[in-house]
Amino acid sequence: MNARGLGSQLKDSIPVTELSASGPFESHDLLQKGFSCVKNELLPSHPLELSGKKFQLDQDKMNFSTLRNIQGLFAPLKLQMEFKAVQQVQKKINSIAFTNIIAVTNLEMKHAHQK
Hints:
Layout: H1 3-12, H2 30-33, H3 38-42, H4 47-71, H5 74-94, H6 98-102, H7 106-114
GO cellular component, one term: cytoplasm
Family: Belongs to the POMP/UMP1 family.
Pfam family, one: UMP1
């Protein structure tokens, strides 16, 4: 078995569904997750990396289960809907360029500084 086959087996062992705010279409949070790299997405760099990913999923499941037991079925559902709403707003904010906000192009900015 080559390294790619082992990596795909390890990656397949991670559950696909997540209960946290992250999802397949989220914008990459550089401060929390660091720089993204194709190599890191293909193969886990260390055996503890899989444990860390599984730990976060287990923590989320446990937190939502506790929330459901204490506040009822609607509480975790409401929280998940709020996470998704915030993600949609963040996506729209990330798609707005700085020049769209001030409505001035780089060329106009250069001419403004030369005057």
